[in-house]
Amino acid sequence: MKVIAKGARGLKSRFYGSLEPLNYISIVFYFKEKRDLQLISQADIRNYFNRIKTDLEKYSLTSIIFEVILRSEYAEDPNPLLFNSVVQFLESLDRAAERYENHFFWLLLKFLQIHGFKPRFDSCIHCGRGHSEEVDFYFSINRGGLTCRNCKTSEATGIMLSHPTINYLLALENTSHLGISAVIDSKQAVKESARLLNRFMNYHIEGLAGLKSMDFLSHIRSSANTKNQKSNTGNGAQTEQDT
Question: Is residue 138 part of a domain?
Fold first, then answer.
């Protein structure tokens, strides 16, 4: 739904500060079926998620979520399950001190489940064999689940997943928003999960290719890595000079 608040940019406006991006608000509006823009008469802030707004990585991950939603949802179709999940995601990410990706992947898994594309990580989709350390498992992008080595076909969309990554995704899938930060991650699990969910969502949900916010996050992380490398190089040079 598209709405407009008249005079909202004025410093003396009753809407001042309440209609900023990422604010969780309650609004009162006048609805007319024949009008494209509905008129807001009142807006009250319920949560403004300041710690997300002031942390560039948190903000970038949140931007990806909202871009995915904007590209995949119909404006006037209510989706209370998704809305509640997004609010829980924002509340948990705002509180988080580490493991930001946990919250990001948790919401993406909820998004897929709500839209009927819940991936299956507990067992082979062909023979039902549970995953174990002794057997390699692949994830079938088009079928949406694990395939053990014995059942694997020559699918072009298959991705091999490590056992820590499978356990990581299962833990996120089975936890509530209150337990997201407690799920143990690793660089390998985060990297494999990002690659898997990106390909899976692009395959099954139309319109998600080329997310601008994803490019923004990549740029931020690339810049941060470059800055850290320069800092480490500078520290090394200083240490050598002092010696």
Answer: no
